[in-house]
Amino acid sequence: MPIKVGVTGGIGSGKSFVCKLIEKMGFPVYYSDTESKRLTNTHPEIRKGLIELVGTEVFQKDELNRPYLASKLFSDEELRLKVNQLIHPIVRADFANWTVQQDSPIVFNEAAILFETGAYKTMDFMILVTSDLETRINRTMARDGISRESVLSRIDNQWNDEEKIKLADFVIENDEDKMLLSQVEKAIESIKEKYKL
């Protein structure tokens, strides 16, 4: 069974960019957000559950109606929790299935809320990608074409870095003045050393 490494970080921290570097180093990465979108559109249990929770309008022409779901979840914490409880176990099972199919000694799972959902407990190591708040806000505004207020409300829905740092095995600082690749290499070398790889 490969060593499982979770890669997480707040919105706009650059965790996907870090994962692209990891892939270039020859390691497989499971992108939870991408796979979650695929499963939400195709998995019968998720479809059935979402329709029960928010109504038939949540799917349009076999595709998830994201704006509709987002509007429902925006101010309803209890509903957000129920949707997460429906989707996350299925994504986790999909990751487990993907993991056994890999022939690499180390696999990586990129996910935004590994700490928040408790999924970090299923990982052998956790890498946290951090970045200063202004950089995160600017990156997300540019990437998603949304307002500063929207970014800040998303950030408020995630744990802050101080809470996550306590649980992380490695912290990678994704700021302009820090060498990113050397930090990633160092973390992977530490994991290899521990397992004599």
List keywords for this structure.
Rossmann fold, 197 residues, two-stranded antiparallel ribbon, 2 domains, five-stranded parallel beta sheet, 9 helices, alpha/beta
Describe this structure in words.
The chain is of the alpha/beta class. The protein folds into two domains: 1-28 and 105-192, Rossmann fold (3-Layer(aba) Sandwich), CATH 3.40.50; 32-101, Rossmann fold (3-Layer(aba) Sandwich). Helices cover 53% and strands 14% of the residues. It has helices spanning 15-24, 32-42, 44-54, 66-73, 77-100, 133-144, 148-156, 161-165, 180-194, and strands at residues 3-8, 29-31, 59-60, 63-64, 106-110, 125-130, 170-173. The strands form two sheets. Strands 2-5-1-6-7 form a five-stranded parallel beta sheet, with helices on both faces. Strands 3-4 form a two-stranded antiparallel sheet. A hairpin with a 2-residue loop joins strand 3 (59-60) and strand 4. Helix 2 (32-42) packs across helix 5. The longest helix has 24 residues, at 77-100. The radius of gyration is 17 Å and the shape is globular. The two termini are 13 Å apart. The relative contact order is 0.21. The mean pLDDT is 93.
Write the layout of secondary structure elements.
Layout: E1 3-8, H1 15-24, E2 29-31, H2 32-42, H3 44-54, E3 59-60, E4 63-64, H4 66-73, H5 77-100, E5 106-110, E6 125-130, H6 133-144, H7 148-156, H8 161-165, E7 170-173, H9 180-194
Parallel strand pairs: 1-5, 1-6, 2-5, 6-7
Antiparallel strand pairs: 3-4
Helix pairs in contact: 2-5, 3-5
